Amino acid sequence: MKLLFVCLGNICRSPAAENIMNHLAAEAGMSSQIECDSAGTGSYHIGNSPDRRMQAAAAKRNLPMIGSARQFTTADFTAFDLIFAMDRDNYQNIIALDPQRQHQDKVKLMCDFATHHSDKEVPDPYFGGTEGFDYVLDLLTDACSGLLSQLTSTDINNV
Ligand code: 4NP
Q1: Contact 39, 6 (CB under 8 A)
Q2: Disulfide check for 146: which of 19, 51, 108, 113 has CB 3.0–4.6 Å away?
Q3: Ligand 1 atom 12: the closest Cα is on which residue?
Q4: Average pLDDT for residues 140-146, to the nearest whole number?
Q5: What pLDDT does 156 receive?
Q6: Residue 145 — very low, low, confident or very high, per pLDDT cuts 50/70/90?
Q7: At 82, which helix (H) or strand (E)?
């Protein structure tokens, strides 16, 4: 099962989601069944490592934060089984690249999988303080746990 997490820059939220999901999948003994990647709808940070502030927030939780930013492409629609947008803007930007609406069903909003947070979007922490990065990790850990539960308990077509 191939999962793609998408934000704007691919240096804060989506690499965090990718690394958290890899971590949770490993804990659940599901690393061989779940393959994760991340991408940005924007091109500003192509080739960059995750933001230092996200790396620092993740290090406090002993969470690896690895990756190199890349931009979302239309090839991702066929390369991945499910695509998770961090906010509504990202969702719209992804859907806009699929004018025939062939792949719309596999594009989801990340927050729909959270069970302990009522946020509808993962807030962009880039222009804020360090506490925003801690919050994003809390929210994404919740959403990734919910997603993992759904993937293990239901058919992929029902997610
Ligand atoms: P991300 O955060 O989408 O979570 O990676 C951002 C990173 C960079 C910018 C905006 C958001 N930027 O405007 O450069």
Answers
A1: yes
A2: 113
A3: 9
A4: 98
A5: 60
A6: very high
A7: strand 82-85
* Cα 20 to Cα 55: distance, rounded to the nearest angstrom: 12
Amino acid, res. 9: G
- CA-nearest of 152, 157, 124 to 33 is 152
Percentages helix, strand, coil for the chain (3-state, rounded to 5) are 45, 15, 45
User: Which ligand 1 atom sits closest to the C-alpha of 69?
Assistant: 5
Look at residues 9, 28, 5, 16 and name the one whose alpha carbon lies nearest to residue 133: 16
CA distance 7 to 39: 7
Here the contacts of 90-95 (C-beta below 8 Å, separation 24 or greater) are 90/6, 90/7, 90/8, 90/41, 93/41, 94/6, 94/41
Q: Please tell me the predicted confidence (pLDDT) of residue 102.
A: 97
Distance 124 CA to ligand 1 centre (A): 7
Instruction: Tell which one of 38, 71, 121, 124 to mutate to probe ligand 1, the residue whose CB is within 8 A of the most ligand atoms.
Output: 124
* Both tokens assigned to 50: 């995750």
Angle, alpha carbons 12-4-56 (nearest 5°): 25
10 in contact with ligand 1, CB cutoff 6 A: yes
Q: Tokens 């230092």 sit at which residue?
A: 52
Q: What is the CA radius of gyration of the chain?
A: 14
